[in-house]
Amino acid sequence: MSKRDYYEVLGINRVASDDEIKKNYRKLAMEHHPDRNPDNPKSEERFKEAKEAYEILSDPNKRATYDLHGHAGVDPSMAGVGDSQGFSDTFGDIFGDIFGGHRGSSNTYRGADLRYNMEISLEQAARGSEIKIRIPTIGTCETCHGSGAKSGTSPITCPTCNGHGQVRMQQGFFSIQQTCPKCHGSGKFVASPCVKCSGAGRVKKHKTLSVKIPAGIDESDRIRLSGEGEAGVNGGPSGDLYVVVSLLSHPVFQRDHNDLHCEMPISFTTAALGGEIEIPTIDGYAKIKVPAETQSGKIFRLRGKGIKGVRSHAYGDLLCHMMVETPVKLTARQKELFHELETLNQEDSSRHSPRNRSWMNKVREFFTE
Predict the structure, then answer these.
(1) How far is CA 152 from CA 145, 155, 201, in A?
(2) Are the C-beta atoms of 203 and 196 separated by less than 8 Å?
């Protein structure tokens, strides 16, 4: 039976922070701990699964290896697969952590994934767009081309580990391998460090990228820019950049997946007598007929006037909510006419105000029970 993806096990995405990893692991560990679930093999299995996932993803180096090679890169039983890690490297991995070491050999690591939060308008989301962003990142030093060595020089074979990236330590009966403290596992030593990057081979920089926003993108959707994350270590591949979309509030529309909602104020006269009104849509204006005796809150649905989602085959709808507007700043004549209308309504209120009559009947029933 194949193992589940570690990110799926912990219920997180691939750009989750260390705090998110720890938080989700603790939640699962509390929920499925054997002491809380005696005689429950399923919970015990979930507990072990979460523990295994946390041990890999909480370690930056193991997480980078897992991101690059999957389970093959971190499973000792699969030596020779993924990153061609032999027995000695595996042995070094297990005991190197005790001494604060890292995986030896070439010690190349994939760069970290980055996240960029982008706010876009509803119109940009609906129609698609192309936006330029400027992001801070860690990239390969252009002066030394990532070698870490001063111009005119190059790294030499590490004299401590002879280029193996690891040294062997004797601990009683055990012979233990750990990452070379001089070259930090790279097998190379920089005698004359690059002035710009101080021998690191990477520098902090900003870069401008063009992000294509697909039409129909929604709140919290992600756009992956492959290889635009942090530069790898010791020649390792770069990470990815994940652009997370957030929609700005709109003065007219509220989005609900592929549907749009808007409130449309109408006058007492239009609500009572009916009429034709213009309502806004994402692409302009449309006319609808308001039937007589329309009540406040009535919803009119305009088919296909919403948004076509990224994964949808059809457009959503526009739902227009009628809001009967009470007139303000009345003139004396207007007040006189309203009083006259109220007098006429009172002569047969059950006919002209059926909802009011129904509501009053419910009130009376409530107090007489």
Answers:
(1) 12, 11, 15
(2) yes
Q: What does the alpha-carbon distance between residue 355 and residue 312 come to, in Å, rounded to a whole number? A: 41
Residues 242, 316: Cα–Cα separation, whole Å? 27
DSSP state, 151? Answer: T
**Per-residue pLDDT tens over the stretch 324-348:** 988 888 899 988 888 888 887 777 6
**pLDDT of 89 over the 50 cut:** no
Q: Which domains does the chain have, with CATH numbers?
A: 6-99 (1.10.287.110), 114-155+190-247 (2.60.260.20), 249-326 (2.60.260.20), 329-369 (no CATH)
Angle value at C-alpha 209, between 205 and 212, nearest 5 degrees: 160
Buried-exposed string 111-131: b where 16+ CB fall within 10 A, e elsewhere: bbbbbbeeebebebbbeebee
Whole-model pTM above 0.85? no
In which band, very low, low, confident or very high, does the pLDDT at 125 lie, cut at 50, 70 and 90? very high
pLDDT value for 356: 62
